[in-house]
Amino acid sequence: MKAVRFYSYGGPEVLKIEGVDLPQPGAGEVRIAVKAAGVNPIDWKLRSGYLHAMMPLAFPAGVGFDAAGVVDAIGEGVTGVSVGDAIFGKGHATMAEYAILDEWAHKPDGLSFEEAGGYGVAVETATRIIAQVGVKPGETLLVSGAAGGVGLAVIQLAKAAGIRTIGTASEQKHDYLRSMGAIPTAYGPGLAERVAALAPAGVHAALDIAGSGILPELVAITGDSSKVLSISDISAPEHGVKTSFENIDATPALARAAALFTAGSFTLPVERTFPLDQVAAAHELSAQGRVTGRLVITIG
Ligand SMILES: NC(=O)c1ccc[n+]([C@@H]2O[C@H](COP(=O)([O-])OP(=O)(O)OC[C@H]3O[C@@H](n4cnc5c(N)ncnc54)[C@H](OP(=O)(O)O)[C@@H]3O)[C@@H](O)[C@H]2O)c1
What we know:
The protein is α/β, with parallel strands linked by helices. It is built from nine helices and 15 strands. The chain folds into two domains: 2-119 and 268-298, Medium-chain alcohol dehydrogenases, catalytic domain (Quinone Oxidoreductase, Chain A, domain 1), CATH 3.90.180; 123-243, Rossmann fold, CATH 3.40.50. 27% of the residues lie in helices and 26% in strands. Strands 3, 5, 6, 7, 14 and 15 form a six-stranded mixed beta sheet that branches. The longest helix has 14 residues, at 120-133. Residues 40-42, 45, 121, 125, 144-145, 147-151, 168-170, 173, 187, 209-212, 231-232, 244-245, 286, 289-292 line the site of NADP nicotinamide-adenine-dinucleotide phosphate (NAP).
């Protein structure tokens, strides 16, 4: 089968499409014929070596952590899924014609493979960080970096849980954020004043998704560093802010996203799709940091 791999850290040009053996599902895993795989910032951060200290790679390395497709082999001990089922979820080396998923949910009929391929990482991350930041129904959550994959998942899952969100994005994305259920505001100077005007009773917690160096402002806005959580800023501990990098079991979160999609309360729109042989261009676009929703590689 064809798979994206690379043999050393470097720019997008290190990505190769190679013929490799089919991966075999281990216990608790399934193999899918991949229809679509999401592009995440972690893909280019790993490829460039930026995350080497935290997540060193063994070479050759595969690319991609989420996908949607059709089950074609089932590992030991797996129940509730059959060969031929359409599923989506999280796995490894998903930018390939076949990939192993270790956490998945059935794809609702109305959900396209392209969109579902971009759910795994964003849905798991959003579910985890809403729980960890400690915000409750009826409270207000400030989301710094609301228009990307994780941010859009956060604002919709928060809304479904009865949590109000104020989301930051550039001005031209404000109507879009509003349509997803957030109260939009611009990032940059004056954020505290804008947030105070939108939430006179204050915000209960804040998520730093964009990692844009605004932790001191988020601490000042919430009034307490323990009410701020970052998924992107490794300097967070210097500000007394907790980080979240460890994945949780995504299975319940994926099933919940599928149910919310079916109920019309969840979507992660795909800004652009790329064929497998343009994965380098997808990495370049992701690394520019301006994606709205998701980028997805389509396969097969
Ligand atoms: N720790 C973890 O477990 C974990 C898991 C998943 C992702 N992450 C990290 O979280 C970050 C976001 O991931 P993602 O998938 O959501 O990325 P993404 O989809 O590429 O996010 C792009 C969005 O970020 C926004 N943005 C850029 N600069 C901003 C700023 N200064 N303030 C507010 N928004 C800004 C952009 O909006 P504008 O165009 O309007 O600026 C754009 O819509 C990445 O760094 C990723 O590596 C961490």
